[in-house]
UniProtKB/TrEMBL annotation:
It comes from the Bacteria. The active site is at Y49 (proton donor). Pfam families: Aldo_ket_red (PF00248). It comes from Anaerosacchariphilus hominis. Gene3D superfamilies: NADP-dependent oxidoreductase domain. Keywords: NADP, Oxidoreductase. This is Aldo/keto reductase. InterPro entries: AKR, Aldo/ket_reductase_CS, NAD(P)_OxRdtase_dom_sf, NADP_OxRdtase_dom.
Length: 277
């Protein structure tokens, strides 16, 4: 399994295991342990997923050394601002049973319900992430769900995001944001790379998958990687976990990549500005 290399030289495994919506407790512990057992070394967590304690138990149970794992955390909307972010970081580390994170992200760019404007809040939160980075408590920092307009102000900062985690999958390419990421060497990570599983029923995708003798899920993961994205597929099933990272033995043709880019019916993603928490 290859790695991507972030702008600061930190290596990050090319496929991660997502934990969004994974039910807390035994289900989550079992799932993350199985993911690690089947070879995943990159685990994508977040405080708001409500399952970080379980992820932490699974990391311990795995027996894999901490330095072999790449762990991402995210600061939630309600914890933005300098002091709150610092406290949220400490709690996440405690829950995940680690004393550092490999990557820490601002989870959402905007929350209209909050009293300060999002630019100010993001800038204060970013200052906290920058200080954590400088103190060696996180190996890399970034953002999530940031569209072009949200990213622009942070590009003026001393240290700019190394990662932007977005909803990306066939039929949803977020072109203008991705263009900006490429310009500034910000690695795009793809959440819901299988379109939350819904994509897998697409007839066009099924036909492409049949031609390659691969599953629809493998086509989605490969599409992500060929675009230079870092996919974060999730499954609770061992066979699917294995399948989702077995994509090294084929290459999608350009014409199929293009057909997947515009797969119909899957282009509406979350608009971060429209979601109020
Ligand atoms: P399950 O956990 O039962 O395997 P995404 O990663 O885009 O959010 O998609 C996750 C959804 O896709 C989950 O519902 C998961 O269900 C399903 N899924 C994950 N991998 C596969 C696969 N290889 N084949 C079919 N469904 C899958």
């Amino acid at each position: 399994m290859e790695n991507y290399v972030l702008r600061n030289g930190v290596e990050i495994p090319k496929i991660g295991y997502g934990t969004w919506k994974t039910p807390d407790g035994d289900t989550c512990i079992q799932a993350v342990e199985t993911a690690i057992k089947t070879g995943y070394r990159h685990i994508d967590a977040a405080a708001v997923y409500g399952n970080e304690v379980s992820v932490g138990i699974a990391l311990q149970n795995s027996g894999v050394e901490r330095k072999e794992l790449f762990i991402t955390g995210k600061v939630w909307n309600t914890e933005r601002g300098y002091g709150r972010t610092m406290r949220a970081f400490e709690k996440t580390c405690k829950d995940l049973q680690t004393d550092y994170l490999d990557l820490y992200l601002i989870h959402w760019p905007a929350s209209p319900s909050q009293y300060k404007c999002w630019k100010e809040l993001n800038s204060e939160t970013w200052e906290a992430l920058t200080d954590l980075y400088k103190a060696g408590k996180v190996r890399a920092i970034g953002v999530s769900n940031f569209r072009r307009r949200h990213l622009l102000p942070l590009l003026q900062e001393e240290i700019i995001p190394m990662v932007n985690q977005l909803q990306l999958h066939p039929g949803m390419t977020q072109d203008d944001t991705i263009a900006l990421c490429r310009e500034y060497d910000i690695l795009p990570e793809a959440y819901s790379p299988l379109g939350n599983g819904k994509l897998l029923n697409s007839d066009s995708l099924r036909m492409i998958a049949e031609r390659y003798g691969k599953s629809q899920a493998q086509i989605c993961v490969k599409w992500s990687i060929q675009h230079g994205f870092l996919p974060l597929p999730k499954s609770l099933h061992e066979e699917r976990m294995k399948m989702n990272r077995s994509v090294d033995d084929f290459e999608l043709k350009e014409e199929d990549m293009k057909a997947l880019d515009v797969l119909e019916g899957f282009g509406t993603g979350n608009d971060p500005d429209q979601i109020t928490f």
